[in-house]
Structure formats: C-alpha cells, structure tokens
Amino acid sequence: MKHVLITGASRGIGLETARCFLENGYCVTGVCLREESKLQAQKLLPSVKFICADVAKEKDAERVLSGFSSLDVLVNNAGIAYFDLVQDTSFSAFERVMNVNAGGAFLFTKHAVKKMLERGGSIVNVSSVWGETGGSCESVYSASKGAVIAFTKAIAKELAPSRITVNCVSPGVIDTQMNAHLTNEDRRALSDDIPLGRFGSAREVAEAIFFLANAEYITGQTLGVNGGFHI
C-alpha cells in the first residue's frame, strides 16, 4: 500500500485531499496544527492518521517524518491567509505567513525527500492564483505563494534524477473556510469574474492534486484550478 502525507489536512482542500487518497487505496497521514482540529478531522475520516504539528517548525517536521520508513507522496497544503495594506503590515506578520506557506513546504520537503530517495516518489505543493498574478491587499500572501511556485520548479529539476516528481496546484477562488469572510456581494462579484461562473470546490482541487501525484511524466508544472479566472 502506498503512503501519502498531507499537511493542513484538518479542513477544506487538505481534508478533501485526504478523503480522495483514502478512496483510492492509500494509507493516509494528515498533519493538523491544533488538537481540536485533529479531533474534528478524525471524526470525519476515522481511517486517516492525524498528527498535530506546526509546519513552520523544523523539529515538528523532523518528528512527523521520523515516523515513516518510506513515503510515496507528500502534499504540502498547509497555509494561512493574510489581508492588509502593505503599509499596515508588520514584519512579524510577513514572517509568519512566509514561514508557514513557503517555509512549511520547504521543511516537509527537506525531510520527506530522505524517505523517497531509494524508490522515488511525488511531491505536490499547493500555491494560489495570487502566487501567479498577485492580489491587492494580499501582498504577503501572494509573495509566499509565489515562492512556493519557484520552489516547485527548482526542486523538480534537482530531484528528477532521483525519480521524484514535483508539481504544484494553483487554486483560484475555492469555496472553503478561507473564503468564508466574503459577503454575498463579494461572492457575486468574484463569480462574475470567473469564466465558468462559480467558485471551485475543495474536491476539485483534491482531484487535481491526486492526478499530479500519480502523473509519472509531469514535473515542475503549475496546474491552475481556477475556472478560467487566470489563463
């Protein structure tokens, strides 16, 4: 049985990705930040092993990966949003967003690769359409997600000789808790800007992640799941 490790697995895209891999016969381990999130996720997916860890801390990444003798797929999904004008953004906020969104992908990749070198594997990172285009009042978030795309391209070249593929999904506007703050007016305006006329679902992103994880001749690519929002 193949093993997949998914960060940010307690809700939204991460939870649906865990469900998708589970339905396809994988042994699934999910990383959650808080104990209460872990317990809630465990009730929804009792066959998944959930572990509490802060992806921005190397000791946590080492601890989680030490539990694997081998690993087939890593999904770096954990991320946090941040909205503010650049002039009102503190450097501590910048550091936290970068450490979680980009640093978490780096740390878990660093330690997961050691488990994949012998027989190959797959890494799928989760970026955002704002990492490709930039989002007004989301400069820090956009920077962190742009870093994930650049990181994906670099390590795809580095790890290809070891038969490890590295790709990225770039979700557009997805109907998850991260966008729950939007008003009905905001939702209508955003939907009008999407050629397919609606928000995407977490399941649609999860299926794109699963596809890339099993695509043996695709590496270094960023797959937009955005309904045509960015082409």
Describe it.
- This protein is of the alpha/beta class and 231 residues long.
- 45% of the residues lie in helices and 16% in strands.
- The chain has eight helices and seven strands.
- It has a seven-stranded parallel beta sheet with strand order 3-2-1-4-5-6-7, with helices on both faces.
- Strand 4 (73-76), helix 4 (91-116) and strand 5 form a beta-alpha-beta unit.
- It is globular.
- The mean pLDDT is 96.
Mean pLDDT across residues? 96
One letter per element, helices H and strands E, the order comes to EHEHEHEHEHHEHHE
Which band does the percent of strand residues land in? Answer: 15-25%
Poorly predicted regions: none
Shape: globular
Specify the biggest β-sheet. Answer: 7 strands, parallel
Our count of helices gives 8
β-strand number: 7
Instruction: Provide the structure class.
Output: alpha/beta
What percent of the residues sit in helical stretches (DSSP H or I)?
A: 40-55%
- How far apart the termini lie comes to 37 Å
Strand order of the largest sheet: 3-2-1-4-5-6-7
Radius of gyration over alpha carbons? 17 Å
